[in-house]
Structures are given as C-alpha cells and as structure tokens.
Amino acid sequence: MHTKTPFKPKVNLISLGCSKNTVDSEKILGQLNYHGVSATYQGQEDDYNTVIINTCGFIENAKQESIDAILAYADAKNKGEIEKLYVAGCLSERYRHELEAEIKEVDAFFGTYDLPLLLEKFNIDYREELIGERTLSTDTHYSYLKISDGCNRKCTFCSIPKFKGLHKSRTIESLVEEATFLAKKGTKELMLIAQELTYYGLDIYKKRALKELIDKLSEIEEIKWIRLHYAYPAQFPESLIEIIRDNPKVCKYLDIPLQHASDKVLKDMKRNIDQKTTRNLIAKLREEIPNIAIRTTMLTGFPTETGDDFQDLISFVEDMKFDRLGVFAYSHEDGTEAFKYEDIWSQDEKNRRVNELMEVQGRISYTLNQEKIGKTFKVLIDRIEGKEFVGRTEFDSPEVDNEVRFTSEKALKPGDFCHVEILDAFEFDLIGREI
Ligand code: SF4
To answer: Any alpha helices (H) in 58-134, and if so which ranges?
Structure first.
C-alpha cells in the first residue's frame, strides 16, 4: 500500500514595495518560522516549493513589478517548479477579483490585513501575542516600526486610503513590546513609519500620542536613534517639533512629503496647505531645530500642473534647499479623485520634469555636502565593502539618503557607532576617515 508523503512547505517570500510592506513581510516570515515552517526571503535558499509574493499596488510601476513577479511564479508553477503560490499585500487587496479571474495558477489571494487567513494555509493559528516576532530582512542594527496603517487624509492623487482604509494606530504597549524584541535582535536605529505619523493616537486615544510613544521607546536602552518618516505638513503639530528638538535619541531629521509648491496644484491635490504656510513651517523647523535635515518628496506631472506651476516648484526647491529630495512622476490611478482629470502629460514629459528637478537637487546637495568637509560626524556603520566602511549620520536614512564612506585601522563592524572626519564630498556621498 502506498501512503502519500504529507506536503511540507518550504517558503520563498518575495517582498515588493515600500518599507511598510517590508514590515508586513517580516511578520509573515516571523510567524511562519516561529511555528516551524521553513521560510526565507528571495535568494536565500533555492529548494523552496511554495512562494508568497507580498505585492505593492500604489502606482503604475510598482503594480507592474508585482504583476510581473506573479506571472513569473505562475509560470514556475505550470512547469512544476513550485507547488503552491500565494499572493498578499496591496495589489491583492486592491484588485483581488480581477487577479483571481485572470491568474488561475495562484492558490489564494490575501489582502493587507489577512495574515490570519494566510497562516491558515499552513495550518497555523494566528497568535496576536507573536505580533512582535519578525524575521528581519534589513541588517539587524536598523529596523522599521510601523506605528499605524491607513490614512484619513484625502489627497486626490493617492489610492492608499481606498485600499488601506482609515488610519489605524497600534497601541503604545504593543509597539514598545515589538521594539523591545527588535532591540534584543540588535536594533540600534528604529525607523518609525506610517502613512501619516502626525495622526498617531487620534483614532484610539482621541489625542495625538506620538510624544508618549517616543518617550516610551526612548527608554529601551539598546535603541540609540529613532527616526521619523512621513509627516503630513498641514496643521503640523507643535508637539512634533518639541519631540525632535528635545529628545536626544530622536534624530534631527524629518521626512515631510510636500508633493508640490504651486498653490493651484496643492489645492487640486487637496493638500490643505499653500506655499506660504509651507515656507513658514520649514523656516520654523529650521529655527527651532538647528541643523535639522529635512527630507521631502515631490510629485511632477499632476494633470493640472502647467509649465508655470512646474517652474514655481523648481523655484521653491531652489529656495528651500532641502537636505534630501525624492521626486516621483504622477501615476493616474483609478479610484482616486484625480482620476476625474485627463492625464494630459506623457510619461516622457513627466519623467523629464522628474529629472529636471533632481538635477536642481543634485546641485543643492553637492553644495550642502561641500560645507561638511573638515567637520566630524557620528556615524552608524551599515556595511563593509572591501577595505571601506559605509555608514550614515543621524541626518540620513538607510536606502534613500546619503552615505559616508570611510577608512579605519580598527576592526569595526556593521552596527558600530564611530566618529568620522569628512575629507571630501560629492552629490550624494561623503568621504572620510575614522578618528
Ligand atoms: S497623506 Fe499620504 S497616504 Fe494619506 S492620502 Fe495623502 S498621500 Fe496618501
């Protein structure tokens, strides 16, 4: 008599999209590993039989990348190279019915809040108390802490509230527990991320609670740096300025996406702020928090952005001299309010505007970096490349900002802090030596 060997899943997880998705992927893997299911990230092991793709569904490029990944593994399944294929994340949340109808090879699709259902496929009962268990995909000395999800704002270009829903803060207790777990794993730098972190607490505590949260997180001995990503500029809370200025563990750094500078475009984007108020806010941040590094993002090619509006944006960026800038081309997304407009700018024109703005920023960044020559900065080492160490100051976030490349005679390792004197500077890199 033949008995069938029970299927033993060996999972390869493909994580696409932003840092918030990275955290979700780390939780999926953390729960699988905790329950004894062998599961790793893409490229770590070859002999997997099951694939989970955690997709991104935010803008066109990201959606295409996710669809390409699903089709590639659907093909692998057809060839018998894998047995099970699961798709989770934002694309799946947003277009589940269309995807189910079109890609039959996928065994099941899950939304962004469906971790328990995904775990059921592995005969695992989701356990809330394991929420902090994460198999980190980053180097362990820095990690992302997702303090909330969803968004209550109504930016007309943005599809996130449609598929993530309204803002949902996590409790301070659960976040402190998760951060303590991360600290035990080696985290020294904690990146607080949310769609909109100024809103933290208003839903569950009926008041802004970012200060209480950060005060508690600061008590974790091993955490040395806390970095804040994604603050909405309108009705910017005074308390956030105090947090950055007064808490020594909070990096003098703020990621504050502004999206545009033309009053007309800001109004059409429903950003609830105009250029004058934005200028005042940036001036106040710089006045109250000396040396703060401000990172922002801009969106070019919005349907109502004329050539004059774009020039207004360029002049604004030239004036403001942001320390860091990311620029994205507008993506015409169904389900958003801006979808009512005609998407009049070609992709080439949108990209041309992105490049023009980035050239302006390149010059600004070069000048700002030149001013750092001869100064000494505290640096957290991210990696070693040959004989060179690569790290960051508190003014730079991993993967998106400047790096410091330097030499040292000491046996330093990733996760160590040291002091580096800057000897030379380029557009996006600083060169130095450890002292
Ligand atoms: S604040 Fe950010 S996440 Fe929220 S709607 Fe606006 S762009 Fe989207």
So the answer is: 60-78, 90-102, 115-120
In this structure, the answer to whether residues 148 and 62 fall within a common structural domain is no
Q: What is the C-alpha to C-alpha distance for residues 7 and 21, in angstroms, rounded to an integer?
A: 28
The whole-angstrom distance between residue 372's C-alpha and the CA centroid of its chain comes to 27
Ligand 1 centroid, distance to 232 Cα (angstroms)? 8
- What's this model's pTM, rounded to 2 decimal places? 0.89
Tokens 């990696």 correspond to 383
* Owning domain of residue 398: 376-434
CB 159 near ligand 1, within 6 Å: no
Whether 99 lines ligand 1, by a CB cut-off of 6 Å, is no
Average of per-residue pLDDT across 173-199: 94
For atom 6 of ligand 1, the residue with the nearest CA is 155
Whether 273 and 334 map to the same domain: the answer is yes
Q: Is residue 1 part of a domain?
A: no
Give distance in angstroms: CA of 256 to centre of ligand 1: 11
Residues 161 and 226 in one domain: yes
State pLDDT tens for residues 236-291. 999 999 999 999 999 999 999 999 999 999 999 999 999 999 999 999 999 999 99
